[in-house]
Design brief:
Structural class: alpha/beta
Number of helices: 23
Shape: globular
Largest sheet: 6 strands, parallel
CATH architecture of the largest domain: 3-Layer(aba) Sandwich
CATH superfamily of the largest domain: Thiamin diphosphate (ThDP)-binding fold, Pyr/PP domains
Strand content: 15-25%
Radius of gyration: 24 Å
Oligomer: single chain
Strand order of the largest sheet: 3-2-4-5-7-6
Number of strands: 20
Helix content: 25-40%
CATH class of the largest domain: Alpha Beta
Number of domains: 3
Distance between the termini: 76 Å
Length: about 550
């Protein structure tokens, strides 16, 4: 038995979870915990400038490492409320973030005390689970539960509120439990009967397509998915935001499908007679929930670790509640005696020809000789210069949405986006977390000038802690998505669409980072190479044509046509 303060017990709990990094912003409500972190030589504290961006760092770290990312808001009230956007983002991405916030002293609750807010109620809708610790002796128990829930499928963020008196009080603590002592390690498999039913359907298909999502990407189990695709002689598409689930170079990789994907992959899903949804919900970004983006006559086999996802948006022929990689292996084994599949040869050969033509056309149509710089020219230059070990982060917004399927992803996991939350101001901070999780990889963050303007104070964090990422600011001097909608559907009645920014390359230099300015396509490659090798955090301010706008959500404004 040991006598520890609640703050010491909290840090000891983090150490037992093998926590390597804690992102946070210091505050008086959690001083006991910060004081304990001072002595925790095995935990690297990363002091951030805003709790929101700190949560994005923890989110990026969690996604890249596959282990929980930890954010500590040192102050209750405003410090805690700043976590909200980041946690809502992490929930939409099923990212295992463990968020900790100081909370009001127990004796002051419901007294309109300084910085009082009901944090339990605030965080409950945007996390998998939220706790407010009521006894110092239960601190280790609550931390164990938080980490367990965050990592249990489907993964997601959790919130721990720790009142000031709980952190300062002293209690006796028994020996701590290691994570292996209380976590399940097994992955559910499909039943033999379900596998046989699926194989029977797959053997007969002439136009199969596999659609992979987070269930393959997050487990880095692309080898299982590719073996299944090869066995079926089937193209394999990816859900939007998961274009890195399958290595780019594999010939059966069609890229991202759906309204935000490429035309080749999208056609496959619109014309397939059997769709094998492997670890994907077939949700909003993939389908907009309409048969405009998926063949209504197709028979769907859906495999997902989350049972409520099965058949949620579209009727399915077979629903298999299982771990996607495990089920993929089961299907390969059952199909093993039928490796020669001629039924889909014409379908797949046509796809291979279309895919090859599309990739060539993508390069040929890039407007590299136009000034100002066109998005297609930027993406082509990035395809040519970015290293194959890169990890790329992106914001929401039209330029980033166009870029998601315009870049080539060679090594899963290498694409990190806001996914369904559609957040602007995410990319740069997320990239810092990814770099800490995977320091051996190059990290490049794409975002618009508006999004970078929201988060550029974290340049101090990058410089202070030597987190050397490259941020490419696609500077078109406007909120591009909204300006496109005002142009296309509201008679060019622009309001609030245009923005001004300082020269981001010079701002980066003032922070102690490296800055580069690009105004012509021919300068892009050299600037990116210099930024990747400069040994500092780097910002490349790229002047993009303000008129190069595109309306993605045209479905939202059908009522205004004509």
């Amino acid at each position: 038995m040991k006598n520890l303060s609640g703050g010491q017990a909290a840090v000891k709990s983090l150490q037992m979870e093998n926590t390597k990094h804690v992102f946070g912003l210091i505050g008086s409500a959690t001083m006991e915990m910060f004081d304990a972190l001072y002595d925790a030589q095995d935990i690297n504290f990363i002091g951030v400038h805003d709790e929101r961006t700190g949560t994005h760092m923890a989110d990026g770290y969690a996604r890249a490492s596959g282990t929980p990312g930890v954010i500590l808001a040192g102050q209750n009230g405003p410090g805690a409320t700043n976590l909200v956007t980041g946690l809502a983002q992490a929930k939409a991405a099923f990212s295992p973030v463990v968020s900790i916030a100081g909370s009001l002293s127990t004796e002051h609750v419901y007294r309109d005390a300084f910085q009082e807010v009901d944090q339990q109620a605030l965080f409950t809708p945007i996390t998998k689970k939220t706790w407010t610790i009521t006894q110092t002796s239960r601190v280790p128990e609550m931390f164990r539960e938080a980490f367990r829930v965050a990592m249990t499928p489907r993964r997601g963020p959790v919130q721990l509120n720790i009142p000031r008196d709980i952190l300062s009080d002293v209690s006796e603590f028994p020996t701590y439990q290691a994570p292996q002592a209380y976590r399940s390690q097994s992955d559910p498999a499909a039943s033999a009967e379900q596998i046989k039913q699926a194989v029977e359907l797959l053997r007969a298909t002439k136009k199969p397509v596999i659609v992979t999502g987070g269930g393959i990407k997050n487990t880095e189990a692309y080898a299982c998915a590719l073996e299944l695709a090869e066995t079926l002689n089937s193209p394999i598409a990816t859900a939007p935001g998961h274009g890195d689930a399958i290595p780019f170079e594999h010939p059966l990789n069609a890229g991202q499908m759906g309204p935000r994907g490429n035309p080749v992959a999208s056609r496959l899903v619109k014309e397939a007679d059997v769709i094998l949804a492997l670890g994907t919900r077939l949700g909003f970004n993939s389908t907009f929930y309409t048969y405009d983006n998926i063949n209504e006559q197709a028979k769907i086999i859906q495999i997902d670790l989350e049972p409520t996802a099965l058949g949620r948006y579209f009727p399915i022929e077979i629903g298999i509640w299982a771990d996607a990689p495990t089920a993929a292996i089961q299907l390969v084994v059952e199909l093993g005696l039928h490796k020669s599949r001629d039924e889909s040869k014409s379908w797949t050969d046509t796809f291979l020809n279309e895919r090859s033509s599309y990739l060539k056309l993508r390069d040929e149509q890039a407007q590299s000789d136009v000034h100002p710089i066109q998005p297609s020219a930027l993406y082509k230059e990035l395809r040519n210069v970015l290293p194959k070990d890169m990890a790329v982060t992106m914001d929401a917004g039209t330029l980033c949405l166009q870029a998601t399927d315009a870049l080539n992803y060679w090594q899963p996991k290498s694409l990190f986006t806001p996914l369904d939350f559609g957040l602007v101001g995410f990319s740069f901070a997320c990239g810092l977390g990814i770099k800490l999780a995977r320091p051996e990889r190059s990290v490049v963050s794409l975002m618009g000038d508006g999004g970078f303007g929201m988060t550029l104070s974290e340049l101090s964090t990058a410089v202070d802690y030597g987190i050397n990422t490259v941020t490419v600011v696609m500077n078109n001097q406007c909120w591009g998505a909204e300006k496109a909608y005002q142009r296309d559907f509201f008679d060019e009645r622009y309001i609030g669409a245009n923005i001004s920014s300082p020269p981001f390359d010079k701002v980066a230099e003032l922070y102690g980072a490296k800055g580069y300015r690009v105004e012509h396509t021919a300068e892009i490659g050299e600037a990116v190479q210099a930024a990747l090798s400069c040994g500092k955090p780097a910002v490349i301010d790229v002047a993009i044509d303000p008129k190069a706008l595109y309306s993605f959500r045209r479905d939202s404004f059908k009522h205004r046509r004509g």
